[in-house]
């Protein structure tokens, strides 16, 4: 072999094993960081979907009030809310519920409602309460829930997200929460 050929072979050698391992390690670290960030963004998206669902429930309840000057007193959960609240369409895979003051003291019948939504893969339950006090009665303040404002609670703080598969479980959740938080009543 000529010296020129040897020189060319020597200058065209590949990467060493150490260089390849260092490169693979860097790629692995970057992908691990990216995967955790993506998982956090997914949870935020699930929570935002639930927030938007509460707004839809709120608008459906307010539409009933605009037509009748009283809020719906029927408690619904899951898909049954589509028939109870005209014009409302439930988003798939969310646990939702909306209920009026049907199980609360009768002086408040038709004077308010509470709605909630949560995604089973999210971390928050969004709750909206509106409760108008009848004339002459002191205003009711639901524990930790400002009136006419969507409030985020962690799912663990309210006993978790109810089963998406059961409309009854979702309706029971809203009745129990509304009665306990607003009126101090057990279901």
Question: Ends: how far apart?
Answer: 94 Å
Q: Tell me about the largest β-sheet.
A: 5 strands, antiparallel
- Tally of contiguous helical segments: 4
Coarse structural class = alpha+beta
Envelope shape? elongated
- CA radius of gyration is 28 Å
What strand line-up does the widest sheet have? 1-2-3-4-5
Secondary structure tally: strands: 5
Helix content: 40-55%
- Name the average pLDDT: 80
Assembly status: single chain
SSE series: HHEHEEEEH
User: Segments where pLDDT lies below 50 for 5+ residues?
Assistant: none
Strand content: 15-25%
SSE map:
Blueprint: H1 3-11, H2 17-68, E1 76-77, H3 81-84, E2 95-100, E3 112-118, E4 124-131, E5 149-154, H4 167-183
Antiparallel strand pairs: 1-2, 2-3, 3-4, 4-5
């Amino acid at each position: 072999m000529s010296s020129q050929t040897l020189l060319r072979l020597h200058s065209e050698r590949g990467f060493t094993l150490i260089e390849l391992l260092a490169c693979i390690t860097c790629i692995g670290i970057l992908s691990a960081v990216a995967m955790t960030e993506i998982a956090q963004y997914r949870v935020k998206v699930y929570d935002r979907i639930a927030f938007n669902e509460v707004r839809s429930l709120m608008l459906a309840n307010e539409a009933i009030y605009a037509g009748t000057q009283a809020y719906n007193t029927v408690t619904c959960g899951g898909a049954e809310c589509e028939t109870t609240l005209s014009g409302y369409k439930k988003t798939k895979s969310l646990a939702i519920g909306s209920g009026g003051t049907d199980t609360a003291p009768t002086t408040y019948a038709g004077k308010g409602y509470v709605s909630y939504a949560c995604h089973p893969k999210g971390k928050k339950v969004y709750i909206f309460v509106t409760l108008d006090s009848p004339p002459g009665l002191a205003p009711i303040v639901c524990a930790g829930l400002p009136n006419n404002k969507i409030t985020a609670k962690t799912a663990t703080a309210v006993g978790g997200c109810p089963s998406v598969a059961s409309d009854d479980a979702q309706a029971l959740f809203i009745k129990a929460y509304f009665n306990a938080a607003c009126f101090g009543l057990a279901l």
